[in-house]
UniProtKB/TrEMBL annotation, chains A, B:
Protein name according to UniProt: Xaa-Pro aminopeptidase 1
Organism: Chloropsis cyanopogon
Domain Peptidase M24, first and last residues per copy: 328-542
GO BP annotation list: proteolysis
Function: Metalloaminopeptidase that catalyzes the removal of a penultimate prolyl residue from the N-termini of peptides, such as Arg-Pro-Pro. Contributes to the degradation of bradykinin.
Cofactor needs: Mn(2+)
């Protein structure tokens, strides 16, 4: 891929940074964060402002443009991709490396005295605003909200904000009605003595009302806010989506309801003024609950004394703990997903030696097989279909310029997933269609050992996921190897493939404790720039563990893999596995055989079934 | 031990809380933190205010007294001890348990509206003040500094602040002169563009000037502050200690020196007014560097805009990385310490069956053997000599009321250490002088597996210690067991046995990365209330590790045990060890034999040598 040429765009941006039509006073720096007004990770095309200005379109990154400089902060997953996509106007700031300055420190080092740093107050989360504003102020600069988004002023062909039809989910999928979710939320509000709760994250709005949308690719969400009072429900949403009889019926918009369950539908754009009105009408001690990641603009709408900010909202926490209906749905979705991948890998095994399968062809084929499954909606993220050196680009997405042909000489890494109406999947398998080298097998086996160490870990109730991260790295560390990303993220139930508040990463400390019913990914990896990438990822469910003893009656937890796709035994150096690890692989493969085998049989996919049986032969350890 | 009766004291305290002689306005609550004006963990008798008012004398705990309540917050190490030492006036707040309120939340729940909460501004660290003040203010209360310490007003027989002679350490012990330390500090100050650095922690003053004292039991420190400017050095210290010719010579007080190395000696009590004078004389951009744990009183002496606060000071970080002279000193100290313990355990093995050895006798005997070693100064903490159920009291100290007799039927846990002029030791061994039960051996072996998992861990340069904590727990977790304390702490070099900024604990996230030369303890445990305690502790040195590969050229680290005392093989269930763990034990014991054996031989301690040889016979694993 060739970098985006941004010289002209940066020139234009630097002009509007001084243009009194847009800024009260000139700003010497302008921050372009990744997110949208809902602090989403995946965003609609109209919100891809950072990609527009820089060319770098990874899922995480913050651009800062000053009069002299343009710099991009991103993390280890994207170092290579960002370097490829940005032209020489840009400096790449590699987060997580020792010598990389923070955005604040860098700004202080490059700005002239008494500078103004602008940012769109709807895009920057309140907690980031606070941190950055404080750091800048202490160095004599000012962070200022710029009402009109300056990227939008130069983005002449900016696409429209999407407004697609909604999907209603009944109890068989959600397990709990939206009314009961509102009741539970109000009881949490009463516990904390707050009168209002502002729902700003798109997946939280979708989860709360048991609705799904398709405004954002891969994430079944729709643009909306909600404000829940103890006796009122306000839903801020645009378009004619509320005219759909199924939606009206689902939300009981035309029924005679107790007033506290009557949903008032309001225009999406009116959230700020409505929230300001709420803020102005508060009596002493009436608090308003917001995520501390809500936008600065909405947070400021509530006078400071009335704000109740928490890192995780009660919806975020409730959503993370899947109920029986959701768990069963996730199980079904993962079985269907495994069927599709067995078909794919069987097909690849036959086709790759012919030299006609490119990364894009393979990704498309994966989507084709998935789309044949019941209740398939769309992919859950852009398929990472990468072979050879492309595998080392952790969040690689094949495009024509980089598209490599799969061969029997290179490792192939496929990280893919789908949205089904009953669940969300996310699975990575690393395969070799020829004969892997001893070194490739060695590295693969260390990654597998790490994967198993997490998946089979037993830990006390109340343990935070970050305490498990080192388990995934231990085998790699022993040989001087490592990987520069976290080990796991929360996974939604027919919702975002990345969700809080739990995960498995050395980078966070503020994650919520794991509890039974939570679903996370387990995905250690190993990457060699310029040669190959290895990752083994399952989605796993937190379940109670039976243990010999039970210290302080705390109880223990462990994981059950929901993903049931064979791990290529050809890539395993069995002699590096312990007996316990070897048994884990064999038991996992036995379960794949039984559960996915039965579904392949039912669907009459006999060739894929034969592939599955062949790929799940037990490993034999040499003693 | 029977609890301290505090009814009368609490009544007196509640009176002075309203007495206009001491408080401008009545305070409805008074906080009594653990520390002294230097935020020390170990404190002088005159600073044991929390123990005086409550009876609880563990090393960590905060008391809060309101008009109606008296509550004590402490952590898992002290739940049992605090419960034993406090009378029914007190409520024990078990930190770390889910339902325990924070001090702030509890205050808000019990205080009448608009209350004032008092605290001694010299005792409360600035970061705690800030957090608590904010929480109270948002609930309509006020945290107020009370100049006169209210405990002192009712503590009629409060002991005098100690003022003992100083010890000077030459280059053979410290490796770096105090002048060179000042030069290095000033270069760190220049890097951060600060003009002044305030040394508030006692061990930092001692380390900086290569002096030691004995004002605080177990910690070779002395009451002093220092204020280092780019061209000035001020040392705040009382008594005639500066009249000692050795000290005068060491500090070159009577030499003609470049002015920037001339030490101005000032009275200890003048620190606040001197610092206020510094604060008043600052030009714009002249910053003053303080630890964010410095007292609120000293922090407030510097106007906010001029403060530069960090969680760890440059002295704290430099002090943690031991140089060659310090490392060699620590090695020597640990060999001498092992000699003493070999003597002790050999003696115990003979004496325990007679039924005459109590916990106190054993502790005294340990001190006796240690005091026979060269350069012995004192113990490094109160010896934890505990048998049977007393072993489950994690920071137990035997007193006549609780003193149990060692027997062949109970586990004995000895956690002890000493200050030698060349180094500080801290070692825990858990022994059985009869025949341990299968269950005791099982638990011991899990703890041993955790100890080895940390000690043998290989991890990348730049890894923080908290990422290793779970390794110590994994074997226990597998069986549903755990322990409620961290796994390791930094250890000083003839300094405090607990020091920052590194450690191995699930509780902290702000530790500094481990680097070669740092020294920490590795001490997992397992405790059953009412029956026994197990802990295996070595002090270990961070050293570079040789690895097969070297990802991103980061380099790897591992640990080398400095403690060389046999781990009782009788307590090990060999069948629960992996081959690798078994080899670790055998190699460790081989090193004990060689290194400590040679020293026992040299000292002519032949019986203890025979004991060592017997106790370090290799384990044989049944295949």
């Amino acid at each position: 891929m060739s970098p985006k040429i941004t010289t002209e765009l940066l020139k234009q941006l630097r002009q509007v940074m001084k243009n009194p039509r847009y800024v009260q006073e000139p700003v010497q720096a302008y921050i372009v964060p990744s997110g949208d007004a809902h602090q989403s990770e995946y965003i609609a095309p109209c919100d891809c402002r950072r990609a527009f200005i820089s060319g770098f379109d990874g899922s995480a990154g913050t651009a800062i443009i000053t009069e002299q400089h343009a710099a991009m902060w991103t993390d280890g997953r994207y170092f290579l991709q960002a370097a490829h996509q940005m032209d020489s106007n840009w400096t790449l700031m590699k987060m997580g490396l020792k010598d990389t300055p923070t955005q604040e420190d860098w700004l202080v080092s490059v700005l002239p005295e008494g500078s103004k740093v602008g940012v769109d107050p709807f895009i920057i989360p309140a907690d980031q605003w606070k941190r950055m504003s404080k750091a800048l102020r202490s160095a004599g600069h000012d962070l200022v909200p710029v009402k009109e988004n300056l990227i939008n002023t130069i983005w002449t062909d900016c696409p429209q904000r999407p407004c697609k039809p909604l999907i209603t989910l009944d109890l068989s999928y959600t397990g709990v009605s939206w009314r009961d979710k509102i009741v539970a939320l109000r009881s949490k509000m009463a516990e904390r003595k707050v009168m209002w709760f502002v729902v700003t994250a798109l997946d939280e709005v979708a989860w709360l009302f048991n609705l799904r949308g398709s405004d954002v690719e891969y994430n079944p969400v729709f643009f909306a806010y909600a404000v829940i009072g103890m006796n009122t429900i306000r839903l801020f949403i645009d378009g004619d989506r509320m005219m759909d009889p199924a939606v009206r019926d689902h939300l009981q918009l035309d029924s005679t309801l107790e007033p506290e369950f009557k949903i008032q539908v309001m225009p999406y754009g009116s959230i700020l003024s409505e929230l300001q009105a709420v803020g102005a009408g508060l009596s002493p001690k009436e608090k308003v609950w917001l995520s501390d990641k809500a936008s600065y603009a909405l947070t400021e709408a509530i006078p400071k004394a009335y704000r109740y900010l928490t890192p995780y909202t009660p919806i975020c926490i409730a959503k993370a703990v899947k109920n029986a209906a959701e768990t069963e749905g996730m199980r079904r979705a993962h079985i269907k997903d495994a069927v599709a991948l067995c078909e794919l890998f069987n097909w690849l095994e036959k086709e790759v030696p012919k030299g006609t399968v490119t990364e894009i062809v393979a990704a498309d084929k994966a989507e084709e097989f998935r789309s044949q499954q019941k209740d398939f909606v769309e992919l859950s993220f852009a398929t990472i279909s990468s072979t050879g050196p492309n595998g080392a680009i952790i969040h690689y997405k094949p495009v024509p310029e980089t598209n490599r042909t799969l061969s029997v000489n290179e490792i192939y890494l496929l990280d893919s997933g789908a949205q089904y109406k009953d669940g969300t999947t996310d699975v990575t398998r690393t395969m070799h269609f020829g004969t892997p080298s001893a070194y490739e097998k060695e590295c693969f086996t260390y990654v597998l050992k790490g994967h198993i160490a997490v998946s089979a870990a037993i830990f006390p109730n109340g343990t935070k996921g970050h305490l498990l991260d080192s388990f995934a790295r231990s085998a790699l560390w022993d040989c001087g190897l490592d990987y520069l990303h976290g080990t796991g993220h929360g996974v939604g139930s027919f919702l975002n493939v990345h969700e809080g508040p739990c995960g498995i990463s050395y980078k966070t400390f503020a994650d919520e404790p794991l509890e039974a019913g939570m679903i996370v990914s387990d995905e250690p990896g190993y990457y060699e720039d310029g040669s190959f990438g290895i990752r083994i990822e399952n989605v796993v469910l937190v379940i109670p563990a039976e243990t010999k003893y039970n210290f302080k009656n705390r109880g223990s937890l462990t994981f059950e893999p929901l993903t049931l796709v064979p791990i290529q035994t050809k890539m395993i150096d069995v002699n590096l596995l312990t007996e316990k690890e070897c048994n884990w692989v064999n038991e996992y493969h036995q379960k794949c055989r039984e559960v996915v085998g039965a579904e392949l049989e039912r669907q009459g996919r006999h060739e894929a079934l034969r592939w599955l049986l062949r790929e799940t032969e037990p490993l034999a350890r040499v003693q």
